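Issue: ligand-bound run for oxa(dethia)-CoA - logging full I/O for the record.

Environment: standard queue, default settings, no custom constraints.

Inputs:
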Amino acid sequence: MNGLRLLGTGRALPEKALDNDAMTQYVDTSDEWITTRTGIRRRYFCAENETTTTLAIAAAQRALENAGLDPQAIDCLLVATSSGEYVMPSTACMVHKALSLREDIPAMDVGAACAGFLYAVETARALLIARGGRHALVIGAEQMSSLLDMSDRNTCVLFGDGAGAAVFSLEADAEYESVCGVRGDMAIRVGGPRREQPMAMDGQSVFRFAVSAIPQCVQQLLGKAGLALEDVDWVVCHQANQRIIDASVRRLGVPAEKFYKNLDRYANTSAASIPIALDELREQGGLATGMRIIMVGFGGGLTWSGIMMRV
Ligand code: UT7
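Outputs:
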């Protein structure tokens, strides 16, 4: 199996953090409501000099440094985002320039909402196999605050800005499984014909979708690999809501400690949430070489994706 191995990670957050009390300046809400319904306590919002691109570049630089890899060795660059500054050029093109990567490589954005990072990882693997090359730089970066209606309490308290990046190498014998899927649905939407509509969301239908998507992805990955959840060291799923993770833990009947959680500190950073979590785990010494991890993303589209690999 041509699988990917994780060589390095990095993350970048805006300087400004807002706790739940700070959200009361925008909408009729409370720390008590946000904490009990979501588990979120804090989020970061970009200041004027910070964007999806600046965060993506900083996270990528740290991931390359952590991997100990010369940027010239990168054979493929993908940026998962729904909040790039420009339609053209892509965020990937701007990161490519800032890092002075080689010109003979593909660099593009991937749009699959909160499942975007794992869609991008799987796309990077396919590109490396199809075109040749060994190293992929995959970034999840979002300025979700640029998409929010700050007068809509159903959405504005849930999201945050940030970026995470990971460097992978393609290895002929690396253990690797992936699943992904899509079901067209308008439960979360942003944009419209003139890109004028901020985010709107049917939270309860997304909640119902999420609590079935996580266990389904985990079971499918384990089934493909012929493994049990006891064989897996960490499940790193998209960080949207503590209650979604708790419900998935109950459905799977596993110890809650196996699921990494940091949504209390960052809120939902969409495509950035999984690589930010990976970077934190690695920094804390939680990702020893040889450990087996499952990652699961789910979100607008609706989209979902899961990847199992050894680090
Ligand atoms: O990456 C995927 C992105 N999306 C998600 O992850 C969303 C998944 N869904 C959820 O996380 C939850 O459905 C929410 C957190 C969005 C909402 O939680 P809920 O338990 O489903 O609440 P609800 O929609 O049933 O709303 C309950 C009440 C409503 O008031 P009434 O109609 O019962 O009087 C809302 O107006 O809570 C009210 N409410 C708020 N109150 C204070 C909604 N947002 C807020 C708020 N502060 N921020």
